[in-house]
Amino acid sequence: MKGRDQLWTLEDTLGELRHLTESAGAEVVGVVHQRADRLTPTYLGKGKLDELRELIQEKSASVVIFDDELTPTQQRNLEAAISPRAFTRSGEQSEVKIIDRTALILDVFGRHASTYEGKLQVELAQNEYLLPRLAGQWSHLERLGGGIGTRGPGETQIETDRRLVRRRLQKIRSELDGVRRRRTLHMDRRKKSAIPMATLVGYTNAGKSTLFNALVRSGSAPDGSASLAADQLFSTLDPVTRRIQLPSGAPLLLSDTVGFIQKLSPNVIAAFRATLDELDRADILLHVIDVSHPKAPEQTEVVEQTLEELGLGERPRLLVINKMDLLTGENGQSAPRSASLEEEAGSGVLVSAAKGWNLDDLLREIENQLVNLDGPLLMTEEYASGWR
Fold it and tell me: What's the pLDDT at 214?
């Protein structure tokens, strides 16, 4: 994890934290940062705590978001150090919530979970996050009435002791096991049909859902249902799978999944293992990269490391270099080529999902990769009947 963090500057991580905060529906009114060799029990030094208190009072801030995952002790100490001294401009005492990066990400997840499974996974992760923070925090928990970091278990029920929280966790896990069994049966039926599967992966906001929708339209899928595409982090949380057609006429199952992000807690990744089963079942992973992003190489490294952590480091994958239109600034049905772009693409395929450029080339390359893996893809009678 330390090596991954060194890929990012302070400005990079704070910029991403701002985007996450805005995705959660909040407005950023100020920033405080500190470079330190080691973290204190209050995370910040005494001078920075004084600066933070002054900024909270000046801006009438109600939430303070930290870019790292706070330990339970750090969170308790920050609550004690900040909240009793926070006042509004009118002089009235105001409660201030302390939120860390993990709680913020879980809040964004909670906003975008739409299926039963997705909501269960968010609640599981939120309860597991809260469990070690229960001791000595009843006054803190009682004032979690809603808003950033409290969506899900925080706004529905605050358990009165750890035993009840653990009982709820057990129930959620049991329900998720049932969902997972049904999902496994469904996936097994997919495998028996011998239809290959490709799954989109990539950094959050790399354009996976836009590409998914463009390929569904381009591939003449019988079911053209779309995946949510928005300029927001984690706009896709629940996996979506559709059947499309490859250039030879053979079918392909295409799946869109949740994006990755730096500093994503291992516990959060583990909680969403059921969703990430889509990756484990894929014959090929389509790693979508936003080539226009200034941190594209670093984002690519985060995705590759996360795939390694999930045990998918050896899974065949194809790089899909997206958003090339933002680099060229040109219009047209077919994408313009340049030596620099080709060099950046390497062994991948340059596309613009938004403009529809090079989608046919991408589909042909996917088919070539699958043929190299499994041999010819045949348009059998079983396949053909599904396309009539």
Answer: 94
Low-confidence ranges of the chain (pLDDT < 70): 1-7, 83-94, 135-161, 187, 190-192, 218-237, 270-275, 328-346, 375-388
pLDDT for residue 334:
43
Determine the Cα–Cα distance for residues 272 and 196; give it in Å rounded to an integer.
Answer: 23
Give the DSSP letter string of 260-282: B-TT--HHHHHHTHHHHHHHHH-
**CA 253 – CA 243 distance, rounded (Å):** 4
Task: Answer yes or no: are the C-beta atoms of 96 and 88 closer than 8 Å.
Answer: no
Q: Look at residue 376 in the predicted model and tell me its pLDDT.
A: 61
Helices (H), the chain: 2-5, 10-23, 46-59, 72-82, 101-112, 116-130, 138-142, 153-156, 162-192, 208-218, 266-271, 273-281, 296-309, 325-328, 339-345, 359-374, 381-387
User: Which residues pair with residue 255 across a beta bridge?
Assistant: 199, 241
What is the reported pLDDT for 367? 94
CB neighbour burial string for 159-178, b if at least 16 within 10 angstroms, e if fewer? beeeeebeebbeebeeebee
Q: Which of 199, 201, 207, 200 is nearest to 290 (CA)?
A: 207
Question: What is the structure's pLDDT at 384?
Answer: 43
